[in-house]
Predict the structure.
Amino acid sequence: MNAGNASETPLIEIAGLRKSYGPVDVLQGIDLTVRRGEVVALVGSSGSGKTTLLRCVNLLETPSSGRIVVEGQPFFEIADGEDKARLSRKAIGAMRSRIGMVFQHFNLFPHMSVLANVMEGPRTVLGEADAPNRARAMDLLAKVGLADYADRFPDRLSGGQKQRVSIARALNMRPMMMLFDEPTSALDPELVGEVLKTMIGLAREGMTMLVVTHELGFALEVADRVVFLDCGAIAADGPPTEVLIYPPTERIRAFVNRFHETAAFMKPLMR
């Protein structure tokens, strides 16, 4: 959606990224770039490594080896056989504060109001004063259609509303990039559209997004690129039409056909 406006310098460069759990190789040498303003959808079967890759980008999972460069500056690097990467906790914290992440299961603080949840990051991580933090948080709640819910607690919200609060909370840290880990997978079908509509709005505003999703209609309409992962490796990386409408391999064709059969692929998105 935004590739034409993307900077020539990649925002994120990933090279040779591997992740193993004991003898199991979950990621097998991933090479991937994401340019500023791009929306990149990560798709593939369960267990293909999509979520692990996403979590490695902001080091919620520590890669076994590989290199991550952010805005041209090395962020993480570890060679095969090394015990640990040369990276401080301070550097990790600073980078995480610039990369927003939205999870499958919301992770809202149940004892805090909606407004307090959205304000928490800037208050505790950035030490921001309450007045500007509150004003921006209210603006973001309005952006996701929840300004009237600021004083409610999470147990009074639907799943779709909780996920939109999670998006507002991540945006309140003013991230350079947003990561989404199957943000609609825990939602009832009738609530999926309201979350996708929020994400579509972010894409149209030029937010850089790396999205793990099973919503292939969203990937086809909104993403600039679709990256198909299979058994921890990239099997395809290209424009959505080339990957999803004209799959380059029989493996990808079989995956896409399953969505045709369940009528989950080409359903229209909310605009």
Remarks:
- Residues 3-7, 262-266 have pLDDT under 50 and may be disordered.
